[in-house]
Design the sequence.
């Protein structure tokens, strides 16, 4: 018999969220732990609570009702998960999010494509929130450049991946793709972004700079 997926109840298998895990990554991981091989099911689980469609983007964490739904599904403390919420700020300068106390413009966030450290994914098996910041371009732990393009199909990595270890387009296992070493200087600069230090991210006009920043 085909099992129904639960409606408005906690998932059978839960897990605690890692301190630096992205909320979207946490949701994807919960789905995997419960054996859901389709994002359609994950979207339905959330929309049963929120009554609105769920878009698989890092900014789901800016919506209180989505964060509350994830807490209910995971059967964890809602107030604690809500502390990770990004507050949306609409200003004349455009759309900003308050991420852990720092205001970041929408284009400083990886909304349209994902980036990962293959080695972190292999060793730890979860998605770090810092990877959702476009100013973070290297993994300080492994001193390698983060990957945002699949080396096989050359398509940008999608956030909508299940399992999260595979390219959603060609199913290449992202844990074992070639990586590129970076300099200590690049690691240091990227750590400023990871820590969300009180600096304003300046995206270079040519889009090439890996780690340019200005004091806010
Ligand atoms: Zn890493
Ligand atoms: Zn691919």
Sequence:
């Amino acid at each position: 018999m085909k099992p129904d997926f639960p409606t408005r109840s906690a998932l059978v298998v839960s897990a605690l969220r890692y301190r630096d895990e992205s909320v979207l990554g946490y949701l994807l991981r919960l789905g995997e732990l419960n054996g859901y091989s389709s994002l359609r099911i994950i979207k339905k689980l959330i929309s049963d609570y929120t009554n609105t469609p769920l878009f698989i983007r890092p900014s789901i964490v800016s919506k209180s009702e989505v964060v509350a739904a994830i807490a209910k599904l995971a059967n964890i403390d809602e107030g604690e998960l809500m502390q990770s919420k990004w507050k949306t700020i609409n200003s004349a300068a455009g759309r900003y999010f308050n991420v852990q106390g720092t205001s970041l413009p929408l284009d400083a966030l990886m909304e349209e494509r994902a980036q990962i450290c293959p080695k972190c994914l292999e060793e730890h098996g979860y998605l770090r929130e810092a990877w959702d910041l476009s100013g973070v371009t290297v993994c300080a732990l492994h001193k390698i450049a983060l990957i945002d393009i699949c080396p096989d199909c050359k398509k940008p990595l999608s956030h909508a991946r299940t399992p999260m270890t595979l390219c959603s387009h060609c199913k290449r296992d992202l844990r074992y793709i070639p990586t590129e070493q970076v300099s200590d200087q690049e690691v240091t600069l990227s750590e400023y972004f990871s820590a969300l230090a009180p600096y304003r991210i300046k995206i270079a006009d040519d889009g090439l700079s890996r780690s340019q920043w200005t004091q806010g």
Remarks:
- The beta strands are 87-91, 94-99, 102-105, 138-139, 144-145, 199-201, 213-215.
- Residues 118-198 form one domain.
- The pocket of zinc ion (ligand 2) is lined by residues 150, 152-153, 155, 167, 169-170, 172 (CB under 6 Å).
- Residues 126 and 216 are 31 Å apart (CA to CA).
